[in-house]
Amino acid sequence: MSSELVRELLDAGIHFGHRSSRWNPKMAPYIFDKRNGIHIVDIRETLKGLLRAKKFIGRVVSENGDILFVGTKRQARDIVAKQAERCNMHYVNERWLGGTLTNFRTIRSRLQRLEELEGLMAGPTWEGGFSKKMKSTLTRELEKIRKNLSGVRKMTRLPGALVIVDVRKEQNSVREAQSLGIPTICLIDSDSDPDMASIAIPGNDDAMRAIDVIVRELATAAEEGLRARPPMPERTEEHDPTAGGPPVRRRGGRRDGGDRDRGGRGGDRGGRGGDRGGDRGDRGDRGDRGGGGGGGGDRGVAPPELAPAGAAPAEVGGAPAQA
What we know:
Layout: H1 3-12, E1 16-19, E2 31-35, E3 38-41, H2 43-62, E4 67-70, H3 77-86, E5 90-92, H4 104-122, H5 132-149, E6 161-165, H6 171-180, E7 184-188, E8 199-202, H7 208-227, H8 254-293
Parallel strand pairs: 4-5, 4-6, 6-7, 7-8
Antiparallel strand pairs: 1-3, 2-3
Helix pairs in contact: 2-7, 3-7, 4-5
């Protein structure tokens, strides 16, 4: 950590905790001193937690994971939205809707409803196809969904980690993340429970400047993780330079496999046809044997050595040849 960042954190008041009467005893390892009835957070523990959090976020994002920033308190709303948008991640800065993670399918259905309403209002039937009351109802529904879910509009899957400002206020989001096994990175004050966080960053979670510095550093780590992501593989194209027209995209060789399959099926049909021909030949042999033995009647064909001189062989299944 640079000395400029340490000075910036101290100037922002990151080390000021709550009154000692409100403290959580589990925060004792992170408390440096108590002055005038106020706990002083150990800045070394703050830097240690911030460094761990930045490394973890960089690894999660570089492995194609997403980060969800959560901060619904008044001091954190604008900061969370600004920094999350800067690093192209998701955020919740209004009200945490129950089931945002554990019932994510329902949240996606509400976002689909948002797209439907926006398309409806942009369409040609909006002006003359609805009454004023219906327009007002649909507009209120649109604004409500936008207010609560605009930050997760592009989130198509569960995040790889959560960044939370003030775990006491955001207990619902912490519990949902814990139930799904999603790691949480939390800025915790002296009145909070550090066991609720996978990675705890002890510090003042009420001062806007302190929140801004911490969230900004974590967003920068997410940006670095995005740059470290491996490039997406490009789709291969096959093109014959002697033939006109655009390149032809192959779909995993299905066409070649289908041709081979059809050829195999044709071979099977040919084999079955050959078997039928062989069966017919066997029947002819049986007819020959019947004719030679005298028991086949007119169905048999007499062998050349047994046929009378000058007589034509009889046709199979037909009348005897005339002498």
